[in-house]
Amino acid sequence: MSNEPAERKDEKIRMRIAPESFSDIIFGLALSIGSLVLIQNPIKTVNDFAGNLFVFGFSFLIIASTWVLFSRTISQLSTESTSVLLLNLALLFCVALEPYLFYLLWNNSPTIVNLLGATSAVYALDVGFMFIILATLGSIVTMQKGQSRNLKLLRRDVVARYAIGLAFLFSAAPIFWVSIGTQHLRNLIWYASFVSFFIAHGSSIKQKIKPRKLAIKGSGNFLSHGF
Question: By CB distance 3.0 to 4.6 Å, which of 10, 122, 157, 167 could disulfide with 193?
Answer without folding.
Answer: 167
